[in-house]
Write a structure and sequence with these properties.
Helix content: 10-25%
Shape: globular
Number of strands: 13
CATH topology: Jelly Rolls
Strand content: over 45%
Structural class: alpha+beta
Number of domains: 1
CATH architecture: Sandwich
Order of helices and strands: HEEEEEEEEEEEEEH
Oligomer: single chain
CATH class: Mainly Beta
Length: about 240
């Protein structure tokens, strides 16, 4: 029993060390017609917030959450609230919002299974919104706002009301990776209010070698328990 306890303690220390070495951090960037108008530095802690306004946007508020606030290896949610200003300049503006969590470490498990739910709500001025789109990406190069590999196909939304979609997706990585959530839509006039929400749950699937080690451990425990019962039986005979 003492040996089992010491073995479990050693495994816990190793796992804690591996997780501590994982320097995950979140960052947000906002682009208007392809030009960056606001961003945050990459910060650890599992939460990133960005809120600002300018002549065309009376409110752009974004919150992204990841590990450790959202348990798991990668990002959990990104929610946005965007309102166009009544002094909008009258030309179409395509707003692109990207949030990335970098330094996600699968800890030896190369397969990351994901499930995404997207929501885009047009709370005001729906007729002046077009080309709404949301999508998630994974990047084995572990770069901020990387979009080299899509977890899911792009989901399109029209400015006619509320839209909500659930869809499965998956991505394969073999080392440290970044994940990016994207929301994009075009606004043609002032007084528009758009909210989006993207939720993701990720689970690492253990490698075959990990399963083999676990099975070997159970076999060892069964063998030790059997020998203990055998010795106890001989002692009482």
């Amino acid at each position: 029993m003492k040996r089992l306890f010491l073995g479990a303690a050693a495994a816990a220390v190793l796992l804690a060390g591996a997780q501590a070495a994982n320097a995950q951090a979140l960052g947000i960037i906002v682009q208007d017609n392809g030009v960056t108008i606001a961003s945050t530095p990459f910060t650890a802690g599992g939460v990133a917030n960005l809120s600002f306004s300018n002549s065309n946007w009376s409110l752009i508020s974004i919150t992204a959450t990841g590990n450790p606030v959202q348990p798991g290896l990668d990002m959990g949610t990104i929610s946005t609230n965007v309102t166009s200003s009544n002094t909008f300049d009258g030309t179409p503006h395509t707003l692109t919002i990207l949030a990335t969590q970098i330094a996600n470490d699968p800890l030896g498990a190369p397969s990351i299974d994901t499930f995404n739910s997207y929501q885009m709500q047009f709370l005001a001025g729906a007729a002046n919104v077009s080309n709404g789109m949301m999508q998630n990406f994974i990047d084995a190069a572990d770069v901020g706002f990387g979009t080299t590999s899509a977890l899911t196909v792009a989901q399109l939304f029209s400015g006619t009301g509320n839209s909500f979609l659930n869809l499965p997706g998956s991505g394969l990585v073999n080392g440290v990776f970044s994940e990016t959530m994207l929301a994009q839509f075009t606004v043609n006039a002032g007084g528009v209010n758009v909210q989006t929400n993207d939720q993701l749950v990720a689970n690492a699937v253990p490698e075959p070698a990990t399963w083999a080690m676990m099975l070997l451990g159970f076999v060892g425990l069964a063998f030790a328990f059997r020998n203990r019962r055998k010795i106890a039986g001989m002692a009482t005979a």
